[in-house]
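A.,

Following up on our hallway conversation. Structure tokens first:
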């Protein structure tokens, strides 16, 4: 047990020393670049924050190389990060660095507790496995929450698109206007619409931009909406009427989903009723009768 604590503390100090050396090296490189290339240095809190961010990025880049990964796995993780709304280039580094640092942190925390005294191998192995899988669980949870938020806010976005189209705006202008108006109430879907607008301004076809949005979000209702828009554009039908019909259909599906959940509550209540409520009722109702019966039997046998 003592040997394991010494090993974990040594690894922790080694990583901290590596980060300090990298931070010092980065600071020296910035000073040399400032002198040689005559770059203006940022002073004050902004400069310190920028230096800390750059040094942290260098440390994470070194740490994330410890985790084994393939190119296909990196592409899948990048796609999952995009679906979670993390589109920055540093997302991959933070993700794989967390898969290396979280297990180490869990094992260090276990070494200061009494859980790993009896069977340290099982607890440390479990801590390593849990820490390695924890970033995946967190990312999957974040993707589900984001998809649920997109599904909830899509009918309101469709209603605003219909209003803009019926007011005389084109589809591109209606998308831009809807993204601006819904940035405060539905920021996630407004952000996705902003990306669609930027791709259209870059010269991509409208259908490809909406298909990319469906691929980024990975939500069934968004895929149905994109296929409906593409078909309406191909066949020349009214986009406003198509969106209104699709919005009404989505609201009907939402009502049916709520009714389905309400119908399932009667079955879900059986388990708390049997495990928690019924025993308390039995104690309150039958308990006094049992006490009286016991006293009567005592009096009977004493006589």
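Then the amino acids I'd put at each of the 303 positions:
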């Amino acid at each position: 047990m003592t040997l394991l604590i010494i090993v974990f503390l040594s690894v922790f100090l080694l990583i901290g020393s590596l980060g300090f050396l990298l931070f010092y090296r980065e600071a020296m490189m910035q000073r040399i670049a400032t002198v040689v290339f005559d770059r203006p240095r940022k002073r004050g809190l902004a400069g310190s924050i920028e230096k800390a961010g750059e040094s942290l990025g260098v440390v994470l880049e070194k740490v994330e190389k410890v985790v084994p990964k393939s190119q296909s796995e990196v592409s899948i993780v990048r796609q999952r990060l995009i679906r979670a709304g993390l589109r920055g280039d540093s997302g991959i580094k933070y993700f794989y660095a967390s898969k290396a640092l979280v297990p180490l942190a869990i094992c260090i925390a276990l070494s200061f507790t009494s859980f790993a005294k009896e069977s340290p191998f099982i607890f440390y192995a479990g801590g390593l496995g849990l820490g390695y899988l924890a970033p995946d669980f967190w990312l999957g949870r974040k993707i589900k929450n984001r998809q649920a938020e997109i599904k909830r806010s899509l009918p309101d976005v469709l209603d605003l698109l219909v209003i803009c189209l019926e007011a005389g705006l084109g589809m591109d202008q209606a998308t831009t206007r809807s993204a601006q108006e819904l940035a405060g109430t539905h920021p996630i879907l407004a952000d996705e619409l902003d990306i669609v607008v930027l791709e259209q301004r870059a010269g991509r076809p409208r259908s490809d931009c909406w298909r990319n949005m469906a691929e980024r979000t990975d939500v069934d209702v968004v895929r149905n909406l994109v296929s409906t828009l593409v078909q309406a554009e191909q066949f020349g039908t009214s986009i406003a009427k198509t969106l209104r019909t699709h919005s009404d259909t989505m609201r009907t599906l939402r009502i049916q989903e709520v009714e389905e959940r309400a119908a399932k509550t009667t079955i879900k209540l059986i388990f708390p009723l049997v495990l928690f409520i019924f025993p308390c009722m039995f104690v309150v109702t039958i308990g006094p009768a049992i006490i009286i019966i016991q006293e009567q039997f005592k009096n009977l046998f004493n006589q």
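Residues 20-24, 35-43 have pLDDT under 50 and may be disordered. Curious whether your intuition agrees with the design.

B.
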